[in-house]
């Protein structure tokens, strides 16, 4: 026995030769399972066991071990295999299935619908192996794992035939591994960006993944399935972690896209039988390829299809995976549905494990910037590194994209100022995904451009400081754990129209090198209950994926007005909208700015939840003088009669109206081909007064009258 154990198979071909010899022994037996048959099979099994201890890979052994096939199962397989490979073997099987006549009777021809040369006749199998009906029932290992095609077989009467699927023939003969596909769509392989230890994720999450790997390797029960549910906003990171975890377990990984499954299901006429049959074949092939299936985009497997509730579709997909696989990985599925599905599955024990991968903190972001800057040869001084870490909450994948883009632009640029290239690439990447109900607002203003009272400017500077140093104070210094509200930054800009609220919002975004998105309230608000919350949810979800953009709600009193008494369902719903928005603002990692002309109409309890309340009053005369001077570019020709002191004293306008008046005066002067004169400015002021409903007195702007 020891001599046999020391003689593993050199390769798959050597094993197939022995199996072919054994098949010949079977054909020569008068009765099933004769002693010589059992002896020959024992010798093969012993050598296969020895082969498991050496590096030699034999597909046959892999199939037998993976699907836990009995001796009779393997006999059924090898007979079907050699019937496909050897025409003479196939004819001998047919002879066994053909009825024999005694000397007194002629031989009857085979029935028209009897055994065919395209499969293995069950009459022959009954002669060779005895009663094997239990091995051919639908829930038996071979048919249920799609290792045998029994479509043409009647197991109850042991008539008809069975055969091997073509991909299995190619696999067992080491010609080709099966391709993983659903319908006509190939599954995409998942590649790990790096080893599990090298992923830039929270150390606690990494420890949990390692414990999962250790625990699953310790529990060797063949009837146990591990369901690993990974959650997080960075889908690329989750995919890489799935592949790295599978690699630690000795597997590759492939993406099973819920959206593709849904489309295939609809092409099959929403027939569950077609879906499950395709999934069983896929699971078989994944096991043959030693691949873990990672289910993504689960939202496509829930909800409604053609008006019919399809919440069970996700459950049936998971059941098909549980049926065959020891490891199933799911990304961002509904938590409750997944847990209930795992606990309701009774054919095997399913152990669900859920792990959330949080966005990278400041230290992880710092390591990601350093890692990929070195990869692309881009210098990062300390000041630039801290600026990138503080202002851009990119996951590692997007950090790599940004630095690769900056490196590419440096190759084509005459300038070697990599700082500007990197910051521009950051902004471009942050703008890659547009929030559905918001539009980017690009204005060129900086802090030196705004004219406002000292108190307003001080509060704007404090707001900038709060955003700039939030990562250090909240994350590094630990204030985020001590004070829950310290993680959010929100502000209310209030004051009359034209006093600089929108300008100030753009200044804040520009000073922070962030994108500013103005929320379109007309798209957010809906008369249908629940729709406004849905739009807000989409807005904040997309904004979070864009990483730390500034959200600007202009004329916010339309959405965030005073709460009313709950007189009816509409009042209750309006109050719920305010509560929901406040909840999302408190959890949003970026900056939210609300602007309103009607501060008194805003709910005071709501406003108290904002860290900053900045007032933009009507400018005083001295400020109006500065505004008039700033309103005209240096290149604009200004006539000597333009009296900025008089304009500041007599034209009581806000900054926005002053800009409009200056622009209107410039067009009037250009039409006359003359410099901008006082008469042009006064005419434009008259137009602004008319828009505002104010009384215009022309003599107020007559220098001679004012000098009397």
Q: How does this structure look, described?
A:
- The protein has 708 residues and is α/β, with parallel strands linked by helices.
- It folds into five domains: 175 residues, no CATH class; 175 residues, Rossmann fold; 69 residues; 169 residues, P-loop containing nucleotide triphosphate hydrolases (Rossmann fold); 87 residues, Helicase, Ruva Protein, domain 3 (Orthogonal Bundle), CATH 1.10.8.
- It has 33 helices and 19 strands.
- The protein has a six-stranded mixed sheet, with helices on both faces. The chain has a six-stranded mixed sheet with strand order 14-16-17-18-15-19. A three-stranded antiparallel sheet has the order 1-3-2.
- Helix 17 runs parallel beside helix 19, helix 26 packs parallel to helix 27 and helix 29 crosses helix 30.
- It is elongated and about 130 Å long.
- The chain starts with a helix and ends with a helix.
Key structural traits:
708 residues; alpha/beta; Rossmann fold; 5 domains; 6-stranded mixed sheet; 33 helices; disordered N terminus
Quick structural overview:
By secondary structure, the protein is of the alpha/beta class.
Gyration radius, in Å: 38 Å
Strand content: 5-15%
Structural class: alpha/beta
Percentage of residues in helical conformation: 40-55%
Please, how many helices? 33
Q: Would you count the extended β strands for me?
A: 19
How many domain units?
A: 5
Could you say which overall geometry the principal axes of the C-alpha atoms support? Answer: elongated
Low-confidence stretches: 1-5, 102-117, 304-309, 563-572
Average pLDDT metric: 84
Separation of the first and last Cα atoms: 127 Å
Largest sheet: 6 strands, mixed
User: Order of strands across the biggest sheet?
Assistant: 6-8-9-12-7-13
